[in-house]
Structure formats: structure tokens, C-alpha cells
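Researcher: Checking consistency across runs. Here is Class I SAM-dependent methyltransferase again:
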Amino acid sequence: MERIEQIFAFINKKAEEFERSSKSTYLEGVLTTLRGVLDGEFQFPVEAATKEETRKAIQLAILKGMRESSQPNHQMTPDSLGLLITYFVEQFYEEKLQNGMISILDPALGTGNLMFTIMNQLDGKILAAGVEVDELLIQLASEIAELIEQPIELYHQDALRPLLIEPADLVVCDLPVGYYPNDEVAKDYELCAKNEMSYAHHLYIEQSLRYTKEGGYLIFLIPATLFESGQAEMLHKFLKKHAWIQAVIQLPENIFKSKQHEKSLFILQKKSDQLRPPKEVLLAKVPNMSNKQALSLFFEKIRMWKENNLSK
């Protein structure tokens, strides 16, 4: 923890100096600091920091900047959820990870915290690609990737437009929630709403399925109210046609700011003629993550479900 605090304190001090001297935002100051470290202009005050310590220290600085920012799209997926998603990745791709690598796409990358959490846990096993429309966020993701030495292909564009990306084994995404403003682009989607603006989070699910291999998995962080909206019936029909629902996991309320921010894990598998659907959908609730006994029972439930549903 000490090394994390020292690296954060260094980034924080430099970012505040840049913020004052150049009238930039704190987040832009963080970006300038990271670039300075990579260019050899500055040096972190600790040696031999791990990739995970470096990621966590940078994350603390970015979180501070996001709290000061009024940008609604400047949000970060918490580490606890990144680690939980990593656990599911390991369950679904256990054999493939033992013998090789898997490709992962995040179509709403942000600063890459979710992706880099997974990559650090499964070091050297991930071929990563990320798409992000916000220029500052993708620049931060690029510098972080270089500092923690995690290779990733980055695409700066609207992820709902056509992508020059090969289908991935797995998609992970903390879905951007809200209406999608470009009706012309939305017309290319089955989930385009007829008499109102389309939901961006619905379109992201459809786009993600387009860029997932047959039989591949998709792990989404979804708003807890996903299936309560007026467009929910259309989403149900679409999913029934293209995917198998593998799991819906309710997350602990205490990790979210308020009830309206609550999210769940939603796990799909893209349909394949060579595979069969699950015998049962995993419905579970993650207990308070500080309760080790309850967490142990939760993971045991997942292992039993995997044994009964994912066997070949």
C-alpha cells in the first residue's frame, strides 16, 4: 500500500501543479504527468512497483479527477467488480487460458480500468482491444497501458459505428446508459426504437454480439432496471434470437452511490450450432464483499452451476 500511496502522491502533486500553471483540468494534468514519466522527464518515487500497484495508484488520481469533473461519461468501474468479472472469465475460459490466450474487446473502454484489472490478473494471457469516443479518456488509457506494460489495440471512435476489429472470444463492458443521439447510425440496428430515441446500452449489446465469435461470452455491467423500460420487450426478443442468457448476478447495494446507480452483471453467450444452451440460468446475488464466509458460499454456487451447465 505504501508504494501505491507514494506513486499517487507524486502524480497528484504534479497534476495539481499543471492544473495551476497551464489552466488545464486535473485529469489533463494527470495525462501530462504520465507522459512525462514515459518520456523520462519525471520518475516515480519508488522502484520495483508492480503493474497492479502502478495501475491502482494511477486509478486513485483519475478517480480524484473524475469527482471534480462534471462530465457524465467520466466514470470508472470499481476494482471489486473488475476482479469479480475476472473470476467469471477464468471459469468460462479455464481450458483456453491454461493452454494459450483469449481475445477480449471492451467497446466502452474509458480509461481502461476494467480491462487492465483483468489483464493484470491474467497477465500475458489476453489479446486486448478497446474502443472509446472520448479523446482524453483514450489518451489516459494509452499512457496507462504503456506504464503497466500491457499491450492493447486502441480505437478512438464511436463504438456504435462499424469497427475495424476481428470478432473476439469475449466482450466485457460497463455499458454506457442513456439515449443514443445519432438516429442515422441507430437505424442500422435491430434494436433501433421506432417512435423515440434508441437506448445506447441496448445498441451496445447488439454491437457487442456482432463482434463476438460464435459461442463466445459477453459480460456486461447493466443498470439494475434494464428490463423495466419501455424498450425492454424489444430487447427480450432480440436476445432470444441471438444469444443465450447464462447468468444474471445482482451486485451488493453498498458499492453504489444510490439505488438509481445500482448495477447487475449480465452474462450472455452468442448462439452457436455446435453448442447447447445452459440447462438453467444462474441467478445469484453477490453478498457483501467483506463477508468471507458468504462470498465462499457464493463462489461454491457458481462452481456447482458451472459443473452442471458448462460441461461438454
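Researcher: Does this match what you'd expect to see?
Model: One thing to look at in this run: The two ends are 43 Å apart (CA to CA).
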